[in-house]
Specification:
heterodimer, A: 187 residues, Alpha-Beta Plaits, 2 domains, 3-stranded antiparallel β-sheet, two-stranded antiparallel ribbon, 8 helices, B: 350 residues, mainly alpha, 2% strand
Chain lengths: 187, 350
């Protein structure tokens, strides 16, 4: 493809280079004065540990596993997220719970293990899109550094409590209803 | 003055000499150190950044990032003093000194305030008293020596990038020194002498920058070349030759090379002020108090140092052939033309 070279005819003033350089200095000085008179909170640069950026509404940060008001997990262990995940970082093991199965003959399902390998996760929010129950959300937390690889393996209770403090919810470490023993399904 | 001298059992002249040595040595050095801060913060502001502001004094005071200077200094002192295996150890060690000493020496001739008389003694505010016979030729000579430091640093480190930088820098200095000297000679001609006090006195009515605008322009541009500053920083040229002449330098030796560049800026600013902006003279004030004249000189000095920084962050670097073109085919004819013009005007009696 032929490229069109645009030739600029400089007038005599521009050809001295002194005047354009001076105009350039005016521009840099304008930037200087503008930046130096701008308050620190209004500048482009956010001085990070002192001041933190508020993520946009659609920001895809650290995941949260949602819960009902009684503290039971919304996830039904359908594996949709694990299937949708392009990075294959979600590991789910399902279990059954609830006493309803004894009378009605069917069981409620929930994950006994819900692991996300945060080192593998690419924060694409495909899991959030795939979830039929809106049980997994990617939210605003972007500060996920750690000193060890192991601490980047988030389990079910880690994921359920990621935003507990921020939302003013209680941290939970166990399901409100016990697991149904496995043999009950066998019968 | 005499009282202070008698406290130290010294002659007033000796005491005054010591004071002047301290001022002339520590003043540019302090200003150079502050310039590194000014350069980093100023460039940051020009580029809509913030710049270094994380170093805290005693873990508490931020002071606009000034503690960064101390932090850098401590870091430079504590770093390992590394000499490359192929380098020439003696020259490698000597080069920063050779760069630093001429940079410091240049300031000795500059009068940084009005001379004053006390108890029959006349005290001059310049390290070398007026009438020493060297005058403004002295900083030009010293400035020419400065290139040896850079060249030695480049050559002794036995690195191809370094030697390229050093060679380019020396070629550049030789090219621009001629134009610069001719611009200065025009000032000498107008003054009728080359003593700085004389030059400053001759600018009493009108600063040299107005009748000799062309000479000032040439001199100022050549000063950028002489100090190895952008847009003429061919000694360094980090986009082309790594870091140029100080590629192999680390720790305090690097700091010394870097500092000598900034001291050069201070000296160059002082030269510009003395030759074209009336030195310590205060505008619209015929006979200023000594302190005011010193303050005025300092203000002018800081302003021109800032211009050096300001220009650096405005203009991109020249190509090497462009530099040579500019030096030989533009600056030299302009400078010669200025000289001839001034000579013609003097002949006409203007």
């Amino acid at each position: 493809m032929a490229t069109l070279v645009k030739k600029v005819e400089l007038n005599w003033l521009d050809r001295t280079y002194v005047w354009p350089v001076f105009m350039g200095m005016v521009i840099t000085m304008r930037h200087f004065l503008k930046q130096i008179t701008t308050r620190s909170s209004k500048r482009f640069t956010i001085p990070y540990p002192d001041r933190k950026r508020t993520p946009a509404a659609g920001y895809r940060g650290l995941h949260e596993l949602k819960r009902f008001e009684d503290g039971s997990i919304k996830c039904v262990a359908c594996f949709m997220c694990a299937e949708a995940c392009p990075a294959r970082c979600i590991t789910i093991e399902a279990e059954e719970y609830g006493d309803i199965n004894k009378t009605q003959g069917f069981e409620e399902k929930r994950p006994s293990v819900f692991k996300i390998d945060m080192l593998r996760c690419i924060y694409c929010a495909m899991c959030e899109e795939a979830c039929p129950k809106d049980a997994i959300w990617l939210r605003t937390d972007y500060e996920q550094a750690s000193y060890g690889r192991l601490s980047m393996q988030f389990g079910k209770w880690d994921l359920m409590n990621t935003y507990a403090d921020q939302d003013g919810k209680a941290r939970i470490t166990e399901d409100p209803t016990p697991t149904v023993p496995h043999q009950s399904i066998q019968n | 003055m005499e009282y202070l001298a008698s406290l130290l059992h010294l002659m007033p002249e000796t005491f005054w000499m010591i004071v002047k040595v301290l001022i002339v040595f520590l003043g540019p050095l302090t200003l150079a150190a502050l310039l590194t801060w000014g350069e980093r913060r100023g460039s940051a502001m020009i580029q809509d950044r913030i710049g270094p502001n994380r170093a805290l004094l005693f873990g508490r005071w931020r002071l606009l990032g000034l503690p960064q200077l101390a932090a850098d200094g401590i870091k430079f002192f504590l770093k390992e003093d590394l000499v490359p295996a192929d380098a020439s150890p003696l020259l490698f060690w000597l080069a920063p000194v050779m760069a630093f000493v001429p940079a410091m020496m240049g300031f000795a001739i500059i009068p940084f305030g009005r001379s004053f008389t006390q108890n029959g003694h006349t005290y001059h505010l310049s390290l070398l008293d007026p009438g020493n016979g060297m005058g403004m030729l002295y900083p030009l000579a010293i400035g020419a020596v400065a290139v040896y430091g850079i060249l030695t640093a480049a050559w002794s480190s036995n690195n191809k990038w370094s030697i390229l930088g050093g060679m380019r820098s020396s070629a550049q200095m030789v090219s621009y020194e001629i134009a610069m000297s001719l611009a200065v000679i025009a000032v000498f001609m107008r003054t009728g002498g080359y003593d700085p006090q004389q030059i400053i006195a001759a600018q009493a009515g009108l600063w040299n920058v107005f009748p000799q605008a062309l000479g000032f322009l040439v001199f100022f541009i050549c000063m950028f070349a002489e100090t190895n500053r952008l847009p003429f920083d061919f000694a360094e040229g980090e986009s082309e030759i790594v870091a140029g002449f100080h590629t192999e330098y680390g720790s305090m030796k690097f700091a010394l090379l870097q500092l000598s560049e900034y001291v050069h800026i201070v000296t160059a600013s002082a030269l510009v002020i003395t030759l074209f902006f009336g030195g310590w003279a205060v505008p619209f004030l015929a006979d200023p108090p000594v302190l005011l004249s010193v303050v005025c000189f300092a203000l002018k000095l800081v302003f021109f140092c800032w211009v050096f920084i300001w220009v650096r962050w405005t203009i991109p670097r020249f190509r090497y052939d462009q530099l040579m073109f500019l030096g030989w085919k533009v600056m030299l004819p302009l400078s010669l033309g200025n000289l001839l013009l001034q000579a013609f005007l003097m002949h006409r009696g203007a």
